[in-house]
Design a protein that fits this description.
Length: 250
C-alpha cells in the first residue's frame, strides 16, 4: 500500500486575472490552477488542496497557505521546483514543508494578517490601479489611528460583514492589531486577527477612510459595532488593494 504524506505550501499570487481562490466551473481560479498541476504530477489522479481561507476575485496574496496529501516521494526543494516549473507566472510557491497528517491549513490557523494599500494623491497611477485603491482626498491618519484602537479586541463584526456572507454561527472575531501608516503618498492599513468575515477588511477600510475625511468620528466605531447592521456603513472598497499577507499556525 502506498504511503500518503501531507505537504504544506506557502504561496503568493497576483489576483488580477483570477476569479478568486475557490474552484469554479469554467473559471480561472487559484485552487483550479494548482490542482491541475498536481493532477498532472500524479498521472491524472484527482487532487484536492485545502487553503487557509478564500480570497475574492482581484485580491492578492503574499502568504496564502495550502495543504494536500501525496504518495510521491519528493524532497521539499524538489516539490517547490516542480510546482513552480508548471504553475502559471501569477502563482509562485515560496515554501514546501512536510507536515504531520493532522495538520490542517484552515482549522489550525492561529491568526491571519491582511494589508490594504491606498494611493493617496490627486492623479491616478495607471500602473498601480490593480494593486492600490486610488483615493484623491485629504486624509487625517491620526484620526484613523484613533478609530483603529476601537476595533482591536473581541467584537461582533456583523456591521462590517457582507450581507452576502454565508458564514454559520456568530460573527464574533478578535482583532489583535488594527493600524494605519502613511509612507509618502501611500497609506497602508494592517489588520491582524483570529479570523475575518466575508469582505470585512474592505468594509473596515471604507469606514476608516470616512473617519480620515472627517465624515465620521473615531468614537463612532463602538456605536457601529453595537448596531450589528451592514446598512449603516458605506460601500465595500475595491479588491485590488487587499493582500492576504501572512497566516500563523498554532
Amino acid at each position: 500500500m502506498t504511503r500518503m504524506g501531507r505537504l504544506k505550501c506557502t504561496i503568493q499570487y497576483d489576483g488580477i486575472l483570477f476569479n478568486g481562490y475557490q474552484i469554479q466551473p469554467n473559471k480561472r481560479t487559484i485552487q483550479g490552477e494548482i490542482e491541475k498541476v498536481l493532477s498532472k504530477m500524479h498521472k491524472g489522479q484527482d487532487m484536492r488542496i485545502v487553503g487557509s481561507g478564500r480570497t475574492d476575485a482581484g485580491v492578492h496574496a503574499l502568504g496564502q497557505v495550502i495543504h494536500f496529501d501525496s504518495s510521491l516521494e519528493i524532497h521539499e526543494t524538489g516539490w517547490k521546483k516542480a510546482l513552480n516549473a508548471q504553475l502559471p507566472d501569477d502563482i509562485y510557491v515560496l515554501r514546501v514543508e512536510k507536515v504531520d497528517s493532522n495538520f490542517h491549513a484552515r482549522f489550525d490557523v492561529k491568526e491571519k494578517e491582511y494589508h490594504y494599500l491606498v494611493l493617496n494623491q490627486e492623479a491616478p497611477d495607471l500602473f498601480k490601479r490593480n494593486y492600490m485603491l486610488h483615493f484623491p482626498y485629504s486624509i487625517d491618519t491620526g484620526k484613523i489611528q484613533e478609530a483603529c484602537r476601537f476595533l482591536e479586541g473581541t467584537h461582533d463584526f456583523t456591521t462590517f460583514s457582507s450581507s452576502k456572507a454565508t458564514v454559520k454561527g456568530d460573527k464574533v472575531r478578535t482583532i489583535y492589531e488594527a493600524s494605519c501608516e502613511r509612507k509618502g503618498n501611500q497609506i497602508e492599513f494592517i489588520f491582524r486577527g483570529s479570523g475575518f468575515l466575508y469582505n470585512m477588511v474592505r468594509i473596515l477600510v471604507g469606514v476608516l477612510l470616512d473617519v480620515g475625511q472627517g465624515k465620521m468620528k473615531p468614537e463612532d466605531i463602538p456605536i457601529l459595532l453595537e448596531k450589528r447592521d451592514r446598512t449603516v456603513v458605506g460601500k465595500t472598497m475595491d479588491a485590488g488593494g487587499l493582500y492576504m499577507w501572512k497566516v500563523t499556525y498554532k
